[in-house]
């Protein structure tokens, strides 16, 4: 218990005091994100916040984790280093999507093959339970890659990725502590501490962004925690803190990054574009475009994510497939309504511009 609390304090302190120095260095070396057509900021902002997050998490985990109880930690840290190196390189000199994907694939492989972090069962979804070994490997790797990229893709407005990551780590960190998985609780609360410190500088007006270094690290740790949460329920069927539909709860916890990523990828593919082709079709972009500020949009999405967690927690008796189907349907309905408002707003703006031009011509 005390180690968990101290891990949070350690990560928070190191990240909090590291960020001002990183901001100063980034500004001197011009390592900043410039305003553009896809961005929502209007001035140059340093993008190396992920370095402070990585430092806070890594130091705290290494310092407070009992290695005798968590032998796989060395491999998890190796995966962290891989993601860190890819992220820093991409934040300074952008990588091609292929190179970034190969690095993510290597990190996922380290987790799957060396740390034995896997999803061995579908828990009855579509009538499937135990998975063959090769399916387990492929499916787990796919899940890790999707979660990493989902956090990378939602990191488009101030405070969003960090806030969602904080919610996930606090909830799962508390659950792991209650189930005596102290090592995983330390990992979760170390990230939570770093993110809380980072958010102080990232909430509007943002002084720094986490960049790919931070967003991919948050995604990797979230994937690790979620998969360990699901795997626990594969081994332990009953208990005071077990969920009847653990995969559904995990999906609800990650609903915003997962649903938005899958939706955007589907839209891009239907338009004949690469799923990695950048655009402004994310949910947070639409909220900004209809007139919300960064913090208003972040607040709305945080509340929605928490609402989905509450809903999926109350639907545990329905089983995984039905619970996931319900929250996906609800997410689709809410997003469709937002898209309707967005289209109406864009049409109104176009009409106003046309009337203004017509007035100037006369």
Helix-strand layout with pairing:
Elements: H1 2-28, E1 32-33, E2 45-46, H2 49-64, H3 73-92, H4 97-114, H5 133-154, H6 160-178, H7 182-202, H8 211-235, H9 246-253, H10 255-270, H11 283-289, H12 294-314, H13 320-361
Antiparallel strand pairs: 1-2
Helix pairs in contact: 1-2, 1-7, 2-3, 2-7, 2-8, 3-4, 3-8, 4-5, 5-8, 5-10, 6-7, 6-8, 6-12, 7-8, 9-12, 9-13, 11-13
Could you explain the architecture of this structure?
The model has no long low-confidence stretch (mean pLDDT 90). α11 packs parallel to α13. The protein starts with a helix and ends with a helix. It has a two-stranded antiparallel sheet. Helix content is 72%, strand content 1%. It has 13 helices and two strands; from the N terminus they run αββαααααααααααα.
Brief sketch in words of this structure:
This protein is mostly helical. The chain is built from 13 helices and 2 strands; from the N terminus they run αββαααααααααααα. The protein has helices at 2-28, 49-64, 73-92, 97-114, 133-154, 160-178, 182-202, 211-235, 246-253, 255-270, 283-289, 294-314, 320-361; strands spanning 32-33, 45-46.
